[in-house]
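Record minuted for completeness.

…
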Amino acid sequence: MLSETGWEKLLPVCDGAMLDLKAWGSECHQQLTGRDNQQIKRSICLLAERGKLAELRLLVIPGQVDYLQHIEELAAFIKGLGDVPVRLNAFHAHGVYGEAQSWASATPEDVEPLADALKVRGVGRLIFPALYL
């Protein structure tokens, strides 16, 4: 993930960026990615402030992500970004390595509770998965 200095160098030649927030809590994010999520959250905010956050993406991984456990904080964070579309991506194990190969693919039934919880809290620009595998 780029630092603020890195983004500042890139932004003049960038139309926009799509960033993934793999989990709300730093511990869960660390378990999924090997890194905490403080830098990605800072990058998301920076891009939103500059009008360059084209899309925020949330990856729904059944039994692995913590979005619903932190829905109030997550929704407030998203609403604070302004009018940014939020893409709900459905996890599938195609092309992944390691432990994640054994994780269940996300179904509409996995995505809908998150979508509903975000909508109820005023997050309206949701994009749903085009494909479930």
